[in-house]
Predict the 3D structure of the following.
Amino acid sequence: MPNPIRMPMDRFEKKGPFDRPMFHIPDLDVSNVKRKYLDIPYASISTSQKLDIFLPETGEGPFPVLVQIHGGGFEFGDKRDIHLKPFLEGIYKGYAVVSINYRLSGEAIFPAAVEDVKAAVRWMRANSAAYHFDSNRIAVCGGSAGGNLAAMIGVTGKTAIFDNPTLGNIEFSSEVQAVVDWFGPMDFLTMDDQLITNEFGHGDHNEPNSPETRYLGSPIKEIPEKVKLANPATYIHPGIPPFFIQHGKDDFLVPYQQSENFAMEIRKKAPEAVVIFELLLNASHGDPKFETTDNMEKVFSFINNYLLNSN
């Protein structure tokens, strides 16, 4: 199991079966970042609709943008928790790093979170000049629930689906140029069977109190069509941006087949698309192996290839 500071991103500590007391993920100290704008609203429906902006110490840009979407089972987590740390290194590589909050399942159910992250990307384009963004070069990154949301932006960016006009800037696109998905849940209804196959025992994703049930608003076994709507694979089409997908082979919360099958669906439905899928052996959910120097070099190499080396 990860140590206490690296708790899995999509669960609380359990007192008993499916009884989840709230767990607080430690915040990241960003006081050393010289150029930053914190808690900027990108929409006005909820106080959750805020983002943080971190800019390189020098230069006026426009900077390519790295958007980080936090995990937490769609029900907890924060834009400034410690999961931002590896991606915040982007400011030293020439990126503007934007970390976003979104409405969690206790406040609003699906598709509110998807609508929010897309609205945040539109806001970035609408305010690109004020914050030194290059609106033609945006990558989204996320782990666990954040991986699902990053993938959703990737596969729906060229369409109007989940573009809620009440959230503003509807005349701007939510399209992105690259996606990094770490161990995101995709097809909620298959996770428990996959965990059994992987010899991790019976999971709790299908239970009435599961994070996925809370996210969709009803027990997921009773709403298969809504589960399908929350699955990024539903929206794969030719022309999607490049995907870099990583998953731990020993993930005991979100089985690795979620990413493996998603990558296979991309290759089948969008054969021209770039999709890199890597399985990290001996890595669990939210494992520190994802954030090692060597692995982050691979992540940034992928992003650089499509943002820094693009026209």
About this structure: Residues 1-22 have pLDDT under 50 and may be disordered. The beta strands are 36-41, 50-54, 63-69, 96-100, 133-143, 178-182, 243-248, 275-280. The longest strand covers residues 133-143. Residues 128 and 277 are 31 Å apart (CA to CA).
